Amino acid sequence: MIPAMRDVIVAANWKMNTTPADAGELARTIASRTREPGVIRVICPPFVCLAAVRDALAESDPDVAIGAQTVHHELAGAYTGEISAPMLAGLATWVIVGHSERRRDAGETDELIGRKLTRAVDAGLRPILCVGEQLAERDAGTQEAVVQRQLTGALAADDPERLAAAGLVIAYEPVWAIGTGRNASGQDASAMADAIRDALEAAGLGAGAAAATPVLYGGSVTSANIGEFLAEPAIDGALVGGASLKPDEMAGIVSRAGLTARARRAAA
Ligand code: PEP
Question: Which of 23, 129, 207, 256 is the most buried (most CB within 10 A)?
Fold first, then answer.
């Protein structure tokens, strides 16, 4: 498929940073510095900051979408401290699922992540499914097999066509590159994006829908290195962690994404 037809997306994962007192102002500042036609911007603050960010963006820039950083795999019940997909109504329209920090700290498995995907899509949330290998797996040359297994496991319990129709986005985030200042090369990310689309097809997605699925790169993305990833036609944007808390960095990243969006529109 011609990448011209895929969304260009920059998603900000604020992780466990900001408070309800300061998140709205940060969101407003980032929004005002990242207006780029053709780039979908998503800010994913902590749960307790969703309302503050929603209110700030409703006034200043309703084009910026809001996402949650995870969601529970059940609808309701005795799950102390958890948040279900229906609870996000009116607060978020996107959700990150399967981030490696959730896999690491909350023991999330591919099967559980698949159930979260289903809940997200049932509730009308657009999911960003994170996949990525550990350093030892890359050193062993098994990175594509690992990522393909993660995808197959997460998509096994639902209809991949339904997930794709709901706007499924895949974020390739090599675990060794998250928050470390190290990043994959653009070429490696591109090869993985191809492997991801192959795996989507193997999981039952039609070739057209697999080719149309946006693949983001994540892992120490900054305004200085985003160009290397967006130079790759297979890559459709970035999931940004640490740099997403810095308005200057977000301005640079989204500005570079705007170049890609313009080039794609011109090629369409
Ligand atoms: C992330 O949290 O998804 C991430 C990629 O973090 P960082 O950009 O800090 O590596």
Answer: 129
